[in-house]
Write a structure and sequence with these properties.
single chain; alpha/beta; Rossmann fold; UDP-galactose 4-epimerase, domain 1; 7-stranded parallel beta sheet; two-stranded parallel sheet; 10 helices; globular
Length: 337
Amino acid sequence: MKVKILIIGGTKFIGIHIVAELLKRGHTVTIFNRGVTNAGLFPTVEKLIGDREKDLTMLQGRHWDAVIDTCGYVPRIVQYSAEILEPLTDLYVFVSTISVYKDFSVKYIDETAELSILKDPTTEEVTGETYGPLKVLCEKAVNDAFPGRSLIVRPGLIVGPHDPTDRFTYWPVRIAQEGEVLAPGHKDAQVQFIDARDLASFIVSSIEKKVVGTFNVTGPKELLTLENFLLTCKATLNSEAKLTWIDDLFLEDNEIGFWTELPLYIPENKGISGMLAVNIDKALQAGLTFIPLANTITDTLKWDQSRQITEGERKAGLALAKEKLVLTKWKENPINK
């Protein structure tokens, strides 16, 4: 069955992959955004230009089988969108985040886990501290407007081509450069992430099957350790890179930032290892599938190379000079000789 979809956003990262998946399956797509980011993408798709915060009246008088909200961060704005769209669509799909959960000190939390609370209910500033709690309130706004007619998707770290954060991209790029590579923390630390194309496929399939509810959407299906991820990067890229593992304390003493400088790395003493080990059983039962990890690695590297940017222009990752300095200090430490 072909469906008519309105997507809010649609021309940045996950939106690009969702639109591509919809078109691949023959669905009818309307993109609504400000017409600023990647405006030339999808030239054959209907585009409505506007600001979701100020005026959505241009959408009135239309009907879509589902709306996909890829860029809702402020509850007031999401509430406005949901209330305007309630009579215009059968299903509201909201892309949220696993950051809505309050406690990541435990692993394998599911969709029933306690949610975080915004300390200042008046704030609309999106920061590392407010991002998750704001998304909680965005979810509530959607569910209030669409009781029993909403699909809330909570992705983990989203990766793959067009990723503006460069968090996953760092590792294929660095492994491809070969040489001695700083590998952080414990080899057996669990990591999770979701290829944006798998996220797109799950969303589109769920719309086709009229699935509603809330789902953690990350992966892979089987447990993946940081060591196995890095070894898969090496094998996939035919790299001769040498991994040198450095412990948490040494990295902290040398002011190496986790997550941003060394993506997918969270020291055990931070008490948030559960961020990379959430329960995805519900999404698997609903049909979540995964592209082979090797494809994600090679496609991300190919996309990165097409950008023709320099190391300093990437938004995440450890600078080569800093990596070399820390590796040298590690090897000079008498304990490690």
